[in-house]
Amino acid sequence: MTKIKNNTATSVLACTFINKIAIIFILLITACNQNIDLKLPTYEPKLVLEFYLEDKMPIRCLLQESVSYTASATPRLIENALVILSYEGTQDTLLNIPFFDENTEKLYNYTNPKIFQAQADVLYEVYVKDTEGREMRGQTRFITPVPIDSLVYRANAIDSISAGLIFTDPLSEANFYRLIAYEERADFKIENSSDIQLRDIAFEGQQFSFFTGPNFARQDTIIGRLYHLTKEHYDFVESAQNARVANGNPFAQPADIRSNVSGGLGIFTSINFDEKRIIIPEAP
Amino acid sequence: MRFYLFLRLICIFLICLEAEAQETYILQGKVFDQSNQEGLVGVNVFLSETQSGTNTDIKGEFRLTTTKQKFTIQISYLGYRDTTLVIDLLKNSKIALFLVPESKVLTEIVVESLRDSPDSKVNQMQMSTDRITMEEAKMLPAIFGEVDIIKILQLKPGVKSGGEGNAGFFVRGGSSDQNLILVEHAPVYNPSHLFGLFSVFNSDAVKDVTLYKAGFPAQYGGRLSSVLDVNMRQGDSQKWGVEGGLGLISSRLTLNAPIQKGKSSLLISGRRTYIDLFTNLANKLNENNEKFDPIPAYYFYDVNASLNFQLGKKDELKLTGYLGNDFFKFEGDNFGANLLWGNRSATLEWTHRFSRKLKMQQSYFTAGYLYRINNRFGENSITLGSNIWDQGLVSDWTFSPDENHLLKWGASGIYHRFSVGEFGISTDFTDIQAGQKLEGLELGLYASHEWQIDENIELLTGLRSSFFISKNKTYTGIEPRLALKYALSPSTTLKASYARMYQYLHLVSSSASSLPTDVWYPSTEGVKPQYSDQIALGLHKSLAEDQYFFSLEGYYKWISNAIDFKDGAQLFANPRLEDEFVFGRGWAYGAEVYVEKKTGRTRGWVGYTLAWTWRQFDEINGGKALHPRYDRRHDISFVVIHQLSERVSISATWVYGTGNFTSIAGGRFGFQDFLPNDPVAIPEFLGRNDYQMPASHRLDLGLVWKLKPKHGTADLTFSIYNAYSRRNPYFIYYKEGRNEEDQVVSFTPTLVSLFPILPSVTYNFKF
């Protein structure tokens, strides 16, 4: 069975499909690749923060620094920095203690064991200062989750299963989403996931549905999640993807990283989602 | 004189016109190629007694005034023997000359642009023009053997390509959407096939093209940087004919047919690639091979048609049409894609001559471009699309009261309809359709006066008023045109020009290359028109008894309301595309040197351009001025054609260009995301187009070998593209190096080149 594993988030609505076709064509007619020496100005590293606030989860973030492109591929984590989360007069300091989330297989190097309780309409702020005196600041708020109308499935000719997530876009300002469907497992690992990121520009106020690829099988339990993203979160991921595409694609437009933290690069945002579960029955 | 070439005058007949005042006699005429009944452009017609002369215009027509009743005219035209005629006029008269090449004439190897004699190019009022004929293009080497007239234009000074093998072109610092491309008055919105590799102009259907780079005639408007006027072939009204060619990736077939002999004709020309036949075969052969990834099917075709009617002595009617489509198809288990994109146009043109002094031309055209993408992703059906459709009327009038004055005036109106950002996604549960419908009315009024003040000075004054009416907004543009020519000597002229141009349609493109998904967007309340001012100065000289033409031109161009897009702009499926535009300014300047050898067994030209191009936007590059990708400091082209024998000619082109500007990431960081995706390296770009790639240079070689078939004519055309297999830069990226565990361990700057040495052969026939 063909499975889409760890499908990189992408915006189907902002499809750059034609770029990919063009790239395929270019690769077909490519004469050769050769290594070259690039004479670029000295790169000045910047602090990079990934900080996702999630209700009922520990407070954790990843703090690293950017590097010259040709530097070692090993991530350069920032040690002994001061990381403070502030809200409603409370300050939670994150300690430089590595934490590995086995469910998502993500590494965080600053944590606070406190279980975070999200509050609506509260301004959350982050302050970071490293041993070199570099500072970062960022702000975010929680937004209301958008409910999933239903989670459905379809079987194709060879009885592979696609999951379909249906929801209704609220008739408000611009909304941004991340859809994910994955197989529920005993070890809670999220595998066989399939996700897309999109904005509601083409379906404002309408019901919308999207199916994953045929990643699932009969008797699987599928979890569908609809993340309602902040605009800053969407912009960051989208610009990061665009920048990635622009490296090695002569047809792509140049892209700047749109961060919502000052003094560096990265994202400080809230995470919320609605979730539904479906068990795929045996074939009739 | 006129080496190796012979001319035979077949038929001369005089048609009497009404008599007028008899102090002077006016001789009007038209010179035809007898073999195909087409007017010959640039034929030199010289009155021996008065030592005055002229050249035939784009329709092959000329007009002379003389006080002599009996006089001698000398007719010279490369490819034909010089001839002399004694004319005895009883009254104002009109003559038609039918010229045919003699059997030994090597017309096929004549570079027709060289027929425009140096003297003619030196003394014409218009500066900054290049004219290329299909005969010339067919002489030169071509990639995959596909003759492409746009790629020949790229060999002229001031014209740059968008990249290796690319059929897009950039003129004097203008972007590709700033070129007005007209085929029989109808605009062409996407002039290329196959992601820009080939132009839409079939070599068998095009007669010639003329590119204006400055001093634009007042009848042209709507784009900032150039006008490319494509002249299609007409059918032969005398006899049937078939011609075509078999190439490595495509074949062509053209049919000539008289409808009513001598009065009307039909020409149909078609071309199709057949890469898809081979890829389909490969897919079928590997049907059961699980390791084989099916190759997508791709092909394009285009069809040109032309109907011509001579309606009496004063009227001509012409109907031309073009249809071209590209298809791309891929079908996988879980994913399928169908792409279609193409241009369409049709033009009806009526020419009427009221008298020998007054002529009008009325045209109606409809033209458009569309793309459609249908994707199937599992249970989701996704469609993307866009189109532009025009309907236009053009009225051109020409009045020549005497040989010192030429007046032109006219009007045009084009109704544009746009469908932008069409997007649909449907499943069993929902059906989302989105997009934006727009329209605009583009109007133009113009008048110009070409005045030969004395024997040394000629002045052209012109004015074009343009209007663009879109929803809730009307824009007006006043576009003065001025040109001055001063003859320092009979063989040397100084020329100067000024032109303002307005542009109301803008290409939404993320790339320096031509992509089918590039969308045209009109000026609206939030998108102001762009406009440019260009001054140009030139010195033009013919040398060595008219064998060489030399020109030196300099220009400076300012662009106001220059358009670009925000970094990371969402250009697909965005019904609020207007929000993604940014507005700034641009400027470009440079100098162009051109030397052309006009006659002899060895002909060709050398062109050199020194140029700078800048753009500046508050929202891009931190507000600092930047170079567009296509900016190139030095550009050199060397073209030579040598006639080895009556049957064999060889040619070579060598081009050199300093590197294009591009954006290179200076840094990177790892992004792990909050969902279970693999961490990826995200590049950090520090500036827009802040890195200049290495220089490019390339040698192409060609050989035309004329065969001796039992019927008609035929030749084999050999081309070697990139003869010394230079690895020219196409783009640069950071290549990931992986270890045995498939982990990324390094990033290496890597330069990608496209074409190595590419030999090709094409068989052409005609009977």
What does this structure look like?
The complex is a heterodimer of chains A (284) and B (767). With 284 residues, chain A is mostly beta strands. Chain A is 10% helix and 43% strand. In chain A, the strands form 5 sheets. In chain A, strands 2, 3, 5, 10 and 20 form a 5-stranded mixed sheet that branches. In chain A, strands 7-6-11-12-19 form a 5-stranded antiparallel sheet, with no helix packed on it. Chain A has a 4-stranded antiparallel sheet with strand order 16-15-18-21. Chain B has 767 residues and is mainly beta. Helix content of chain B is 4%, strand content 60%. In chain B, the strands form 10 sheets. Chain B has a 22-stranded antiparallel barrel. In chain B, strands 1, 2, 3, 6 and 9 form a 5-stranded mixed sheet that branches. In chain B, strands 10-17-18-13-14 form a 5-stranded mixed sheet. Chain B is globular, with a radius of gyration of 27 Å.
Search tags:
heterodimer; A: 284 residues; mainly beta; five-stranded mixed sheet; five-stranded antiparallel sheet; globular; B: 767 residues; 22-stranded antiparallel β-barrel; 48 strands; 60% strand; disordered N terminus
Fraction of residues in helix of chain A: 10-25%
Query: Care to count the β-strands of chain B?
Result: 48
Q: Could you say which structural class the secondary elements and strand pairing of chain A correspond to? A: mainly beta
Q: Residue-averaged pLDDT of chain A, rounded?
A: 85
Radius of gyration computed on alpha carbons of chain B: 27 Å
* Main beta sheet of chain A: 5 strands, mixed
Average the pLDDT over all residues of chain B and give the rounded result. 85
Beta-strand fraction estimate of chain A: 35-45%
Beta-strand residue fraction of chain B:
over 45%
- Structural class of chain B comes to mainly beta
Shape verdict of chain B: globular
Series of secondary-structure elements of chain A, N-terminal to C-terminal: HEEEEEEEEEEEEEEEEEEHEEE
Give the uncertain stretches of chain A in residue-range form. 1-15
Radius of gyration of chain A, rounded? 21 Å
Which regions of chain B contain 5 or more consecutive residues with pLDDT less than 50?
1-22, 102-115
Distance between the termini of chain A: 20 Å
Q: Most extensive interface: pair and counts? A: A-B, 103 and 95 residues
Count of separate DSSP helical elements of chain B = 4
